């Protein structure tokens, strides 16, 4: 703090921005001030001076940062566990984070939580609160269940408002460091029933089916997002109220005039690796601005089409394979899966994200939302199969329909259900195969 004395009358001080950043006054400075007072003939005693305290921004920020970065491990075994959960209202969806297509999935998708926690997605109602734990832990089963007021989140009535948090996964906390952890939770009633917005519970049922277990499904979720300027709600890097040059140079672009928000993307990347998340990589997308945002004053949106017009939307393409698809003869299994997906197109579209109709128009590397299609190396199809998969006769498929605001619990479990558990009638299968020119 810097202190400045001003007379109680006839003296007003204008504090400039420079003075707020000034260092505290020294004895020499005080002598100079008092000397000037004497020269001006003002001999009023100091007791008639009023003291004003000026906040030194740099000093306060430095002190705060020192406390935030304080390592308490030499002094206590206690840690901070940040319990995190979603508050999803009916008919809304949330997002996921990019994951290697060759990494086996688990019974729930922790990447959606982590993506939104680190990046700070908007439109995603992410909540958290901190709890002191007596010692470091290695498994979520060592953590106590907790609760929160569901009436304050629109998930429970006021007369019976308690919602129970079940810890499901833990990660190293890249924000607090040390032994502190992030605890990913899902939500239940006091009677032990999953609340309606708990999408993980249904996904866990599907993934625990023996048929699904035997097929060892793998998922690679490619999360696209758009960074927005907070003051104008306009994409980062775009001139305010105007438009940048046409799409073309921005995809995987380099340079200050082509790549916007790289520092945010890199910070998220490193935070994921620190926490132990399997993230395969990052790149700038086709639309400029499609690239931790709380700290940088930038807003992230998962809207599938944040800017109308001749710009790509934001999706969450999901790579998917099963054990049978990855083995010899797997391409035939992929074709059968595509056939099943075509017959449940409407069910998938209804679960693949809000506002997706603004993105799936048949333009900008999308298929029409109303028509199912597939193709090899065709990014304008509902389902894309890679050239390598075709050449090797085995591999994976890419579902390009999910929007950027999709719920990975829903999408991953629905893919498994449709391709492994759901069986169409022979008649429907034959008609679909003919329509898609699929010989199965």
TrEMBL record:
SMART domains assigned: Gln-synt_C (SM01230)
Ranges of residues in domain GS catalytic: 290-440
A cellular component term, taken from the record's GO annotations: chloroplast
Compartments in which it is found: Cytoplasm; Plastid, Chloroplast
Record has ATP-binding as a keyword: yes
Span of the signal peptide: none
Summary of subunit composition and partner proteins: Homooctamer.
Record protein name field: glutamine synthetase
Organism from which the protein derives: Eucalyptus grandis (Flooded gum)
Lineage of the organism: Eukaryota, Viridiplantae, Streptophyta, Embryophyta, Tracheophyta
